[in-house]
Write a structure and sequence with these properties.
This protein is an alpha/beta fold. The chain has 5 domains: about 100 residues, no CATH class; about 170 residues, no CATH class; about 100 residues, no CATH class; about 210 residues, Rossmann fold (3-Layer(aba) Sandwich), CATH 3.40.50; about 40 residues, no CATH class. Helices cover about 50% and strands about 15% of the residues. The chain is built from 25 helices and 19 strands. The strands form 5 sheets. It has an 8-stranded mixed β-sheet with strand order 9-10-16-15-14-17-18-19, sandwiched between helices. A 3-stranded mixed β-sheet has the order 2-4-3, with helices on one face. β7 and β8 form a beta hairpin. α3 runs antiparallel to α4 and α20 packs parallel to α25. It is globular and about 80 Å long. It starts with 5 loop residues before the first helix and ends with a helix.
């Protein structure tokens, strides 16, 4: 196909860039610069110009202006990476810096445009799950020019091209993430690193050497936990010489701490630069101290509130056993810390000398506090006085309104995420008026009785296993087949028995309920009825489940509504919140799925389901999200859930669902309930089929 001429290019660029063109700023010069290129390069430029113009016309103009010089340096794949980098810069920092990113394509190329390079976005999904699987508090991943951590987020380089292959580059990413995790897990920031380095003549060099010494210490800990990863690291490049191994012997022991690294630092001359490698991270003590101090104060308050709830529960239990007892008054918690076989600490709570079963969130708090402080101080074990009388204290504080959680969003046109694009807040649903749950149970009384019976049978269901070598009964089908084999001269099989095997249910189910404005009226009522019947059935079955609603308006106000958490009993409070479910705004689904995937990912279960109950397709106030953009973002969020080992499923009443749900969920992972009035009964039936 012949290349486009300058006049042809001018016509197409005029149409694409018309809003930013004027008598002094035309597309003619741009067209002349593109005319010498091949048709493929020209079409590449025009296609991306159209995509970028949908976000910002000025950015599209800057792109076309920079493209002729950029295409002389970058191939198509790296040119796309350059475009995505510039648009990410625009999303985060605005038009000026975004335009500069287009102009500075040579700097982008210099940072490494090798064919085997791995981008952060490619490595992050796998590394996120890898880091979550390691012991310790949950950590986020983000991108930064150099690798470092503030003890809450692991910052990794945007691109890794130091290795000879893509596999090596991904391995380097993995090593960096592990070393940063180890800094958080094994107390690198539990000492005042700034004070430890300021006494040296060159504090910056002293900090680099301390960073190296910590790397030596942490590698030894990682080698004990993940020996295969350390072998891979040594295969890439030997970080230390044999002399170093002897010199730093103290740091190679499992009980070494950051204090040992600081003590060793004081013995070094620091005349030379500290050894470094491509996976060497950077220490930022000030940022880490700020984040750590805020977390320590917050977690102390959360732990004391949680212990107050535990104390109230213990007191209530004792009072029921002995009405005249005043057990619980003046009692305090004690803690015993043991080291398991993997060398990791385990904390056991006791009250009045008797063990107390700590909920998951309390165990995580204890572990996180011990990481920061090295121990659990005695004053942390004193229940908070203003919460001691609350029987169902909510120990998970709602994030303040001015501090939302930020999530990426998939832009299918760029084939890339918009970084920290959506702000999400978790809110509680206010309790509804009246006894909605009771009225629903009366309305469906005959069906409820049948549901309970069927779910009771499901709970005790045995699976008949045939053709076993030993068992409880004769497998007649196998005997008949074996007899036929004997008559044919073949050897008789030993698999002639049947055995009943009791199926063990190990499920965690997240129900994601559409609370958009389109559910107003009858749809809202049947949604709430469905949840009541589901909860009643699941209480019989014993499966772990949580219920959250979602809605919002624009990317700056995405909202998740807590109705029932996994660790919360199906109480009058939960029934009140179900009654209080009310239509809100729009249906920006991708952000809600990402948030609830994160919550479900923390639950220890063999099978995890994310079941969406919705009346329509993804939608928002902005036309930008409606249509293909919202559908593709939701689909990408569901792919992320699959990668996390979560199985999504959608129950919808939208008669147009066949046009978009198979693309989002897959052909077999959704169902349409044609008759809205039958939704409450159909939902329980669908759940039974999904989990058996």
């Amino acid at each position: 196909m012949p290349a486009l001429t300058a006049p042809e290019l001018n016509t197409r660029l005029d149409a694409l860039l018309n809003p930013v063109l004027s008598s002094r700023r035309t597309a003619r010069a741009l067209a002349d610069a593109l005319a010498p290129f091949t048709r493929g390069q020209q079409e590449f430029t025009l296609r991306w110009t159209e995509i970028i113009a949908r976000t910002n016309y000025e950015m599209a103009y800057q792109f076309v202006a920079a493209t002729p010089a950029a295409l002389a340096t970058l191939d198509t794949a790296n040119a796309e990476a350059w475009i995505i980098h510039a648009m990410d810069t625009y999303d985060r920092a605005g038009l000026y810096l975004g335009g500069e990113a287009f102009k500075n394509f040579s700097a982008f190329a210099d940072r490494g445009a090798e064919q085997n390079a791995v981008r952060f976005d490619e490595a992050a999904p796998v590394l996120t799950h890898f880091v979550c699987a390691l012991a310790g508090r949950r950590l986020e991943l983000d991108v930064a020019p150099v690798a470092w951590t503030d003890t809450a987020t692991l910052y990794l380089p945007p691109r890794m091209a130091a290795g000879k292959t893509r596999e090596q580059n991904f391995l380097i990413y993995k090593i960096i993430a592990t070393l940063l995790w180890a800094q958080c897990r094994y107390g690198t920031f539990s000492a005042d690193l700034e004070a430890a380095t300021q006494q040296h003549a060159d504090p910056a060099r002293a900090l680099d050497w301390l960073n190296f010494l910590e790397c030596v210490r942490l590698e030894a800990r990682i080698a004990h936990l993940l020996p295969g990863l350390i072998r891979d690291l040594r295969d890439l490049n030997q970080l230390r010489s044999a002399a170093h191994e002897k010199q730093f012997a103290r740091l190679l022991t499992l009980d070494a701490t950051v204090a040992d690294s600081i003590a060793l630092l004081d013995t070094l001359s620091l005349e030379n630069e500290a050894p470094a490698d491509v996976w060497t991270c950077t220490l930022r003590p000030a940022e880490a101290a700020t984040k750590r101090s805020a977390r320590i104060a917050q977690e102390k308050d959360e732990l004391q509130a949680a212990l107050a709830a535990l104390l109230a529960g213990e007191a209530k239990s004792k009072t029921q056993d002995n009405a005249s007892s005043t057990a619980g008054d003046g009692e305090t918690f004690e803690i015993e810390t043991r080291t398991n076989a993997a060398g990791e600490p385990e904390h056991e709570l006791s009250l009045g000398g008797k063990p107390v079963a700590a909920p998951d969130h309390v165990r995580k708090l204890l572990d996180s506090i011990a990481q920061d402080l090295g121990e659990i101080p005695d004053d942390y074990l004193t229940p908070r006085a203003d919460s001691a009388t609350q029987e169902d204290a909510d120990v998970e504080e709602i994030p303040p309104e001015e501090h939302p959680r930020y999530y990426d969003e998939w832009d299918y046109q760029r084939r890339h995420y918009r970084k920290h694009w959506c702000a999400l807040r978790e809110l509680d649903v206010p309790a509804g008026e009246g006894d909605f749950a009771g009225d629903t149970l009366k309305k469906y009384a005959p069906q409820v009785l049948q549901l309970r019976r069927s779910f009771e049978m499901l709970r005790g269901e045995d699976r008949l296993m045939k053709r076993m070598t030993h068992g409880d009964d004769i497998d007649l089908d196998a005997v008949i087949a074996g007899y036929a084999d004997l008559r044919a001269g073949n050897e008789l099989t030993e698999r002639l028995f049947t055995r009943r095997h009791k199926a063990e249910r190990n499920l965690a189910v997240m129900f994601m309920v559409d609370m958009s404005g389109s559910t107003k009226g009858w749809i809202n009522e049947v949604e709430r009825e469905s949840l009541v019947l589901l909860a009643e059935a699941l209480e019989v079955l014993g499966d772990r489940y949580a219920i959250y609603g979602f809605s919002g308006m624009t990317r700056k106000r995405c909202e998740i509504f807590r109705i029932k958490r996994f660790d919360e009993a199906y109480s009058s409070d939960v029934r009140g919140r179900i009654a209080g479910i009310a239509p809100q705004d729009y249906t920006r689904m991708g952000t809600a799925i990402r948030h609830l995937t994160g919550l479900l990912d923390t639950v220890d279960a063999r099978t995890k389901l994310l079941i969406t109950l919705s009346d329509g397709k993804p939608d928002d106030y902005s036309d930008h999200y409606r249509g293909d953009y919202g559908i593709e973002d939701t689909r990408q969020a569901l792919i992320e859930a699959h990668r996390a080992g979560i199985n999504p499923f959608c129950i919808t009443i939208d008669h147009e669902a066949r046009a978009y749900l198979p693309h989002m969920y897959g052909a077999a992972n959704w169902t349409l309930v044609d008759d809205v009035s039958r939704l409450p009964l159909k939902v329980t039936d669908i759940y039974r089929r999904l989990t058996t």
